[in-house]
């Protein structure tokens, strides 16, 4: 019985080693490919322009609020309590508007990123799938992933770049 168990364990080890060797695994540098794609470069530039515009609008409003705060602070001793209370409420409202602008800008940015990067991601995934099928890879792992433990298989980065027509 003991010999049968040892034999069974040996057979399992041989089968599992041969199954592991049968799998073709490759790695791919996703960030390298993405950064080489002209679509990504254009999307990044569009996102940066959008972000710069929104930040400028928010800064303009914040600067106006700071100027009002300075003015109201300087004039406060000369004003009545009711006037100061009204000015304080006005500043509070302005602060809330700035916060709403920031929140809206963040949501708009996320939406713009989703629209811009969705087709790029799909194109990249389709190319990776095509390369994997053409080369018989069962797994392609991101070479930049922190969970990546071993990188000994072939690198499919060049093949995916070629499929996309980028350098």
TrEMBL record:
Electron transport keyword on record: no
GO CC annotations, alphabetized: cytosol
Residue ranges of the region described as Disordered: 64-87
Single GO MF annotation: unfolded protein binding
SUPFAM superfamilies given in the database record: OmpH-like
Transmembrane residue ranges: none
Basic and acidic residues bias locations: 71-87
Keywords attached to this entry: Signal
GO biological process, one term: protein stabilization
Keyword Signal: yes
Signal peptide stretch: 1-20
Xref: InterPro entries: Chaperone_Skp, Skp_dom_sf
Family: Belongs to the Skp family.
Name of the molecule in the record: Molecular chaperone Skp
Organism: Chryseobacterium kwangjuense
């Amino acid at each position: 019985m003991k010999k049968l168990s040892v034999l069974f364990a040996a057979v399992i080890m041989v089968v599992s080693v041969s199954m592991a060797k049968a799998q073709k695994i490759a790695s791919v540098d996703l960030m390298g490919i993405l950064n080489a794609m002209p679509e990504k470069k254009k999307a990044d530039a569009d996102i940066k322009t959008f972000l710069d515009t929104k930040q400028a609008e928010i800064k303009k409003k914040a600067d106006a609020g700071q100027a009002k705060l300075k003015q109201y602070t300087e004039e406060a001793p000369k004003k009545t309590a009711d006037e100061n209370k009204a000015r304080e409420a006005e500043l509070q409202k302005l602060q809330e508007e700035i916060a709403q602008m920031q929140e809206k800008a963040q949501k708009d940015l996320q939406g713009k990123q989703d629209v811009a990067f969705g087709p790029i991601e799909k194109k990249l995934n389709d190319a990776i799938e095509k390369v994997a099928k053409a080369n018989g890879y069962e797994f392609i792992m991101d070479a930049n992933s922190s969970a990546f433990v071993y990188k000994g298989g072939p690198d499919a980065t060049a093949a995916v770049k070629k499929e996309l027509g980028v350098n």
